[in-house]
Write a structure and sequence with these properties.
By secondary structure, this protein is an alpha/beta fold. It has 7 helices and 26 strands. 37% of the residues are buried.
């Protein structure tokens, strides 16, 4: 099977991914970042009454036709404590922000514009304009109004208005379930003591974080030894959990000890493709097992993370109905880059800005796909297309940002 270009591989993967239709009700406090499955209608009118927008005096504008008009204060109103009576001619009520306007009032004279006189009297110092500083009933929204639309990705502003609409729960689309399976006799969990031929398993943690950061739920299937029976049992766990995606880490090639692909095929997986024209990350596998998409990532940590960012991230976001995350920006090479071969290269690089504000990318000298420290210290990946010629320092180049 020929090596597949990166863009074609991504298109083939995403074309077969259908956004999740299933919905669930979640408490308002747990809905941040979720996607609404239905329109949200207000259960009340906001504000529920004509309210004061300022501290001052509630009055009828007709009782203060000119600066210097005098009125009698007959009571007070505060948020949560309405004045129960009604205004008569020439009367006013001391009022505070958020309080309901008393019957007979249509305007607010702010406290700075009122002069206190002896007794319960005030004098206007500025013109009173009818309706000024009043929040009319229903100014924000009305009962039954669809304030939030299905498909909205909920954030702090949406949650605030949903709470004001008296909605303690919201109907949102279910998160994609992503099962992660690490394979290899050489792997042990962090905290353990590796044997002479063993290493610490690290890929799961980065891939799981990538899934969660993009709206998915993780089912960690742990580490499975290089035995078909054990791999098959883990695959069945993913199917029983109704995972939307099964991500395997390592073992997807066709060597004597690479048993994942063969085991998946034996379980009924339809293989789409499994080798990509990219570096790092050539041995990428994509297929489908029933209703579960399968994404086999390379075992080398950096190759796993790069392919996870390029393929798993957009897959999870599409399933979760989240907008695509745009990581690619334009920059300038800090140093010359050699000509490239037939595979698209992703070079780990430090990023900085020059005096003119241009984004400068300096590739690390060592680019081995097992070197995690360099990846952690990188800010972005310089993209080198297949057969790209030598690139002098100061040349434009596309960059994938690893973090904002």
């Amino acid at each position: 099977m020929a090596l597949l270009p990166v863009a074609e591989a991504k298109t083939r993967l995403l074309d077969k991914a259908d956004p999740i239709e299933a919905a669930e009700a979640v408490p308002l406090g747990e809905a941040n970042g979720r996607v609404l499955a239905a329109d949200v209608e207000a259960r009340l009118t906001q504000p529920p009454f004509d309210a004061s927008a300022m501290d001052g005096y509630a009055l009828n504008a007709a009782d203060a036709p000119a600066v210097g008009s005098e009125l009698t204060v007959i009571g007070s109103a505060a948020a949560g404590h309405a004045f129960e009576g009604a205004l008569g001619r020439g009367e006013t009520v001391r009022i505070f922000t958020g309080a309901p306007l008393p019957q007979g009032a249509d305007s607010i004279l702010i406290q700075e514009d009122a002069e206190r006189l002896e007794g319960d009297r005030i004098r206007t110092k500025f013109e009173v304009v009818k309706g000024r500083h009043v929040r009319p009933r229903g100014q924000d929204f009305a009962e039954g109004e669809a304030v939030l639309s299905a498909g909205t990705v909920l954030d702090f502003s949406h949650l605030t208005v949903a709470a004001a609409m008296n909605r303690p729960e919201l109907s949102v689309h279910r998160r994609p379930r992503v099962a992660i399976l690490a394979t290899g006799d050489e792997l042990i969990q962090p905290g353990g003591t590796p044997g002479a031929a063993q290493i610490i398993a690290s890929n799961t943690f980065g891939i799981a974080a990538l899934v969660r950061d993009n709206g998915g739920e993780v089912l960690d299937l742990g580490i499975v030894r290089d035995r078909q029976a054990d791999i098959a049992a883990a695959i069945e766990k993913a199917r029983a959990a109704e995972a939307d995606v099964l991500v395997t880490l390592g073992g997807a090639s066709i060597g004597d000890h690479d048993l994942v692909q063969a085991t998946l095929k034996g379980a009924g997986m339809e293989l789409d493709f499994w080798r990509i024209a990219m570096r790092p990350g050539k041995p990428l596998m994509v297929g489908r097992l029933g209703g579960m998409q399968v994404l086999g990532l390379p075992g080398n940590p950096v190759a796993s993370l790069v392919t996870g960012m390029l393929f798993l991230e957009p897959l999870v976001r599409k399933l979760a109905r989240l907008p695509e995350k745009h990581r690619e920006v334009q920059g300038v090479t800090a140093k010359a880059l050699t000509a490239n071969d037939q595979r698209q290269d992703y070079l780990r690089a430090r990023l900085s800005k020059d005096r003119d504000g241009n984004l400068m990318a300096e590739a690390f000298q060592k680019q081995d796909s097992s070197m995690m420290k360099i990846f952690a210290h990188s800010d972005g990946l310089i993209i080198r297309p297949p057969h790209a010629p030598e690139l002098p320092a100061g040349s434009p180049c596309p960059i994938l940002l690893l973090r904002p």
